[in-house]
Amino acid sequence: MTRSQLLASLLATAALAATTAHAADPKGNIEAGRVKTYTCHGCHGVPGYKNAYPNYHVPLIAGQNYEYLIAALNGYKSGERSHPTMRAQGESLSKEDIEDIAAYLSSLAAK
After folding, report:
1. What is the pTM of this model?
2. Burial 86-101 (b: 16+ CB within 10 A, else e)
3. Structural contact between residues 69 and 61, judged by C-beta atoms closer than 8 angstroms
4. Is 75 within the bounds of a domain?
5. Whose CA, among 29, 42, 50, 70, lies 20 to 30 Å from 14?
6. What tens digit of pLDDT does each residue of 35-64 get?
7. What secondary structure does DSSP assign to 40-60, as a single string?
8. Structural domain of residue 87, as residue ranges?
9. CA dist list (Å): 111 to 44, 47, 103, 108
10. Which residues form the Cytochrome c domain (predicted)?
11. How many other CB atoms sit within 10 Å of the CB of residue 11?
12. What is the pLDDT averaged over residues 13-17?
């Protein structure tokens, strides 16, 4: 391979990488969200689970709409939604955490 062919190949590879990076979902990092949902599974991953107090059905959140998850997590973070456990979880999340978690959960098939 000549030097000019090598340079052309490297430029093409760089252009493809840049295009792929821009094509990624700007709504959050799915892989990072997978890691960040470790505490969510304790309640939201158990079919038929009910919260002890107040007693109500805990929803499964896999496959939920991205925008809904963003709104719900921001609601818990701000105190607009009042569930004490979720409020504590929400308060600890950054904007990036919320976007990553919502990207991951919304990418899953609903169960």
Report:
1. 0.71
2. bbebbeebeeebbbbb
3. yes
4. yes
5. 29
6. 999 989 888 887 777 766 667 778 889 999
7. THHHHTSTT-B-SSS--BPPP
8. 26-107
9. 11, 9, 17, 9
10. 28-109
11. 10
12. 49
Contact 58, 49 (CB under 8 A): yes
- Angle (CA) 86-89-93 rounded to 5° is 130
* Domains: count for the chain: 1
Tell me the one-letter amino acid at 29. N
Residue 14 counted as domain residue: no
Q: Are 105 and 61 in contact (CB under 8 A)?
A: yes
| Helix-, strand-, coil-residue percentages of the chain, each rounded to 5 | 60, 0, 40
- Closest to 96 measured CA to CA, from 108, 104, 87, 107: 104
What does the block give as tokens for 27? 């709504």
Q: What are the φ and ψ backbone dihedral angles of 57, each rounded to 5 degrees?
A: -65, 135
